[in-house]
Amino acid sequence: MSLTHLVTGASRGLGLELARQLAARGGRVIAGVRRPEEATGLRELSAEVVPLDVTDAGSVAALAERLRGRPLDVLVNNAGLGGGAEPLERLDVTTLDRYFQVNALGALRMVQAVLPNLRAGSRKLVVNVTSRMGSIDDNSSGGYYGYRASKAALNMINRSLAIDLADDGFTCVVLHPGWVATDMGGMGAKLSPRESVERLLRVMDRLTRHDSGKFFDYTGHQIPW
Ligand SMILES: NC(=O)c1ccc[n+]([C@@H]2O[C@H](COP(=O)([O-])OP(=O)(O)OC[C@H]3O[C@@H](n4cnc5c(N)ncnc54)[C@H](OP(=O)(O)O)[C@@H]3O)[C@@H](O)[C@H]2O)c1
Fold it and tell me: Can you give the pTM of this predicted structure?
């Protein structure tokens, strides 16, 4: 079955690779990017490139308007903001809200905006790309306050989405892509974007409604909260 996916943050890194592999499968890909004119990596793909800043309500509303009446099978909330390694003493707490705006609220804003499209789709799958760094259980090294807390918030948002949309037949999950060699992950990372996305797509293909509300890594293993 050929599905329509909307991928946010598709200009580079995992988002670009998701768009590439999904397009190669023959599905329809809508690739959300902040600056379409600079998203050169998407030009060779058959994806529909759309302007999208997930922190900007006007930008999200414009996309919803553009997609009005078009069924969408899968939303991949991939756009993310990383970094923030400053030690506690030098941390400027007033700058941390941007992590929440992108990593947590951006994803929620997107689900709200395209909910009618997802309801009209056949797969009804919401994939929120989170991080193991958002796991409270797994945090043994501290720091990264904005990134960790915003991904933990995303995990909680996902759980509420899973509950609220269960009766509509939705599957909503948070997926950790592994430590991946992108601008965010750095070149010392273990996985290439290609390997990570191949594994993520394998996990996504197998997801059923029974998995909704859960936290998996790219191998399909569940991660503790
Ligand atoms: N790489 C890793 O090791 C790793 C590990 C765990 C989780 N993750 C998660 O995986 C996802 C993708 O990460 P990545 O490694 O591919 O990161 P990346 O290379 O830094 O790419 C981030 C992407 O997000 C987009 N973005 C940032 N802010 C945005 C906004 N306000 N609106 C729309 N798009 C926005 C960027 O667009 P611009 O080009 O316009 O900046 C870019 O396309 C993120 O959610 C990240 O937290 C990554």
Answer: 0.98
**In the numeric block, which tokens belong to residue 130?**
């989170």
Only one residue has tokens 């991946």, namely 180
Q: Which ligand 1 atom lies nearest to the CA of residue 191?
A: 3
* 134 within ligand 1 shell (Cβ under 6 A): no
CA dist 167 to 45, 55, 127, 164, 197, Å? Answer: 36, 28, 18, 7, 29
Nearest CA to ligand 1 atom 44: 80
Indicate if ligand 1 lies below 6 Å from the C-beta of 79: yes
What pLDDT shows up at residue 7?
A: 98
Q: What is the pLDDT of residue 119?
A: 98
Helical (H) or strand (E) element with 158 = helix 145-164
pLDDT digits (tens, 9 = 90+) for 6-39: 999 999 999 999 999 999 999 999 999 999 999 9
Q: State the pLDDT at residue 155.
A: 98
Asked if residue 204 lies in contact with residue 125, where contact means CB atoms within 8 angstroms, the answer is yes
The identity of residue 180, as a single letter, is V
The rounded distance, in Å, linking the Cα atoms of 46 and 225 is 37
Q: Which residue has the tokens 């395209």?
A: 114
The closest of 22, 21, 27 to 4, measured between CA atoms, is 27
Q: Among 186, 175, 189, 215, which residue's Cα sits nearest to residue 83?
A: 186
Q: Is 38 in the pocket of ligand 1 (CB under 6 A)?
A: no
- pLDDT less than 50: residues of the chain: none
Cβ neighbours for 216, distance < 8 A, ≥ 6 positions apart: 173, 174, 175, 176, 203, 222, 223
Q: What one-character DSSP code corresponds to residue 191?
A: B
* Euclidean distance between CA atoms 21 and 155, whole angstroms: 25
